[in-house]
Design brief:
Elements (H helix, E strand, L loop, with lengths): L6 H15 L3 H13 L4 H11 L2 H18 L9 H14 L10 H20 L28 H13 L4 H14 L3 H6 L5 E2 L4 E6 L3 E6 L2 H14 L19 H14 L1 H5 L4 H16 L1 H8 L18 H12 L13
């Protein structure tokens, strides 16, 4: 339409076009209003997203989605601005629970923004908003600080194992948990997700279900494979799909067992409490040892890292197979492994 036409002429032209299309101005206004009211509120949309994501994502973001509902529950998801998200992030930073390993609320802010980005990614996919209208994408996350975790020296690791085996209400369980993490370098979630069906006792392998819904077979020593099988036989019964690690009464362990274990270790070993040592330190310990003795490729495979985004493109061609991982485990434990490419170093 020619913008130089008088206003009344442009109005007449638009009116004629609407008449030709069989529409009225009132219908256009109703359509626009209906489009706006079809955008869900946070109270309506967050439960839908929660039901659509995996358990790991739900566990990581649930606290922050609940904070969003507390603040904006009755608002439409397209209403908050990047500035409002920053304001919410600062409120969470100020009210975060102060722990010994706290880092000024940076992690809480990172998780909040990640939770909102996850929410809005689903909204974009559902065509409720466009990518250009995604407010969380325009809010920068605080830069992640280097981790304070590190490998535990051998004498200190021996102290942990000694205390775990001589204190507590179920030292057999605690020693089994520690050995499982030292041998496999698995994450806590991987150990909790392990089922009896994931244990291949003949080939000394354990199937791990871990972060990012990854699944991998990890070599374990014959001693650990036997111990896990016996543990489940004594405490788990005949349920092949049941969780592998259990209390004496047969109930599967939860994250609380890990909390109890490290709190107890901290009472007997002050340095554990002071440095906030956790299960993930065992992963650092094992992977550091493997990298020093067998190189980066084997350590990467041992850790179950599949992405090459954190390193040079050369890593696409530098891959270790399960036989090499089994060889590293054999050297670590001093036990032969059926898949090991070579005998353990003396």
């Amino acid at each position: 339409m020619n913008p130089e036409l008088p206003a009344n002429a442009r109005i007449a032209a638009v009116t004629a076009l609407l008449r030709e299309l069989g529409l009225t101005p009132e219908q256009l206004l109703q359509t626009e209003h209906a489009s706006a009211t079809s955008i869900p509120t946070f109270n309506e949309y967050i439960p839908r997203v929660t039901a659509a994501v995996g358990p790991g994502t739900r566990r990581a973001y649930d606290t922050y989605w609940r904070r969003v509902i507390e603040r904006w529950g009755d608002r439409r998801i397209d209403e908050p601005t990047p500035l409002e998200i920053k304001q919410l992030a600062e409120d969470i930073r100020r009210t975060v629970v102060k722990r010994r390993n706290a880092r000024g609320g940076r992690t809480a802010v990172q998780h909040l923004i990640s939770a909102l980005r996850c929410l809005y990614r689903h909204a974009v996919a559902d065509r409720l908003i466009t990518e250009a209208d995604n407010p969380a994408a325009r809010v920068a996350k605080p830069r992640r600080q280097p981790s304070t975790r590190r490998a535990i020296p051998a004498p200190r690791l021996a102290e942990i194992i000694e205390v775990a085996g001589s204190t507590g209400d179920d030292s057999d369980l605690d020693l089994l948990i520690l050995r499982l993490h030292v041998e496999t370098a698995c994450r806590r979630g991987g150990a909790l997700a392990a089922r009896r069906a994931d244990l291949d006792r003949e080939q000394c392998l354990l199937r791990l279900h871990e972060k990012g819904e990854t699944i991998r077979w990890q070599p374990i020593s014959p001693t650990l494979a036997t111990a896990l099988a016996n543990h489940y036989e004594q405490r788990g019964g005949n349920q092949v799909q049941g969780p592998l690690l259990r209390y004496r009464n047969g109930r599967p362990i939860t994250r609380r067992r890990y909390d109890y274990l490290w709190q107890r270790l901290g009472r007997y070993l002050p340095w554990v409490a002071t440095q906030q040592v956790s299960t993930h330190w065992l992963r650092h310990t094992t992977l550091t040892w493997v990298e020093r003795h067998f190189g980066y490729a084997v350590a990467r495979a041992y850790a179950g890292h599949a992405s090459t985004s954190d390193a040079a493109a050369t890593t696409t061609y530098i891959k270790a197979d399960i036989e090499e991982v089994a060889s590293a485990l054999s050297a670590l434990t001093g036990e032969p492994h059926p898949l090991a490419a070579s005998p353990p170093a003396s």
